[in-house]
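Hey,
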Amino acid sequence: MHRYRSHTCGALRDANIDQTVRLSGWCHRIRDHGGLLFIDLRDHYGLTQCVADPDSPAFKDAERLRAEWVVRIDGRVRRRPEGTDNPDLPTGAVEVFINEIEVLGEAAELPLPVFGELEYPEDTRLKYRFLDLRREKLHQNIMTRGAIVDSMRRRMKDQGFFEFQTPILTASSPEGARDFLVPSRIHPGKFYALPQAPQQYKQLLMMSGFDRYFQIAPCFRDEDPRADRLPGEFYQLDVEMSFVTQDDVFAAMEPVITGVFEDFANGKKVTQKWPRIPFAESIRKYGTDKPDLRNPLEMQDVSEHFRGSGFKVFARMLEDTKNQVWAIPGPGGGSRAFCDRMNSWAQGEGQPGLGYIMWREGEGDQKISGAGPLANNIGAERTEAVRAQLGLKAGDAAFFVAGDPAKFWKFAGLARTKVGEELNLIDKDQYALAWIVDFPMYEYNEEDKKVDFSHNPFSMPQGGLEALNTQDPLTIKAFQYDIACNGYEIASGGIRNHKPEAMVKAFEIAGYGEETVIERFGGMYRAFQYGAPPHGGMAAGVDRIVMLLCGTTNLREISLFPMNQRAEDLLMGAPSDVTPKQLRELHIRLNLPEK
């Protein structure tokens, strides 16, 4: 028999009854039932119930065992007594009567339990991550993550993509987030950077004549903590294709992402025909560029019903042509208590409040009448016009946001989400996927009083060089696109600007001269001079996709060894001090801030 096991802890079935077996694993749970000792033995593959009674030669050894001790158990497989089967366990029809126990590794007192799914402080969980990873739900999430990556890889290869590995040590990039820098010992005073993304390398692969690239790529960004991104590093499904239009990228990637979601949806619906929503429409209808389409609410511009009305606050605002009034429908929300609750929520978000109208069954000729301060101020006719436009009925409400949409759209989007959640309108049993398209190429930076790239500086403007030369930059749209799912951006991409003169012009508009382009993107700029194919691609966030499919909202629940919110690895003790000798070898002297 093998030194440690003849079977795993998930393998035994009825067919093994009366066999002598050897199992090794962790003592998951130990139960004393009046002289009978039950040990639930766990390994990666499952759990088997093992039993010792006072007549067993191993009983005294069994009495010594504690949670998470690692043991080898020899014994005979038998059917569980009638009425004690566990149908939720694959091994639940059988148990092992113990003949011999060998302790392979004792465990100290546990800083957090492995049995059960109790909430524990995050710093404790991360410091003892090797224990945390033994817990059933987290262990399963990590295995699901591996299976999702396998599904991505298989589907990409089925679509004719080839997997490449691009460098980890590269040059610092001026765009995007802050780089992690790596000092060079051989070149004193110079630094490598860890890649924020393989963006330039994957484009250079297209310059090199490769046609369909993909990579499950590690990316590194020295960013302040964000709820939807792990500090330090994350992984993305990175993709690039030659001789393609935007439609070709969509046709290649839609079945891959749809298929991955279908593989792990556990019965939830997955969008089959993805809508394509222009950026401006997404902002206007949903108040976000990553809409949760499980929420059926769509905001509408109702400015005309308030222009010149008796509600002077909105009427005066609308005298400025850039201002608008948007309505958020609230079907089923027509109670004073709910409307007051929404108003209080808005004040908690730093707003003066949230105007509303409630509709109720009317009297006489008026079948439905509006109620509330706004309805009283604008009158029955305008109130009815608002209701008709929004398609609402008695028992419903609408909430109103007014001013410059450029300044209020994010709050309006939050309000739409809040109404949908509070009224239970969100269909939790689906993954709602969509393309967001036609992003603006540029935006105005109020702080620096200049035009900036709004998304990806390497994207092709719609209209090409002519648009760059003749259009107001703030009106130029780009061949840029995102994938939104359930309120998260899970992918982003674009058709690339592959013509040198167009690339230089695009950067000039954002305040970078040709010499800056050559200095910072020299390799790619040089490659464009020697026959650059039209190309485009995207990158999908592996961590966010896994998070959605595992049904969690915390990225630490789907990552092996994540950092905490202060970008510290509590398990390994990183970042850590280095020795004076190491600093001398790198020609670095520390200039630390005063405490």
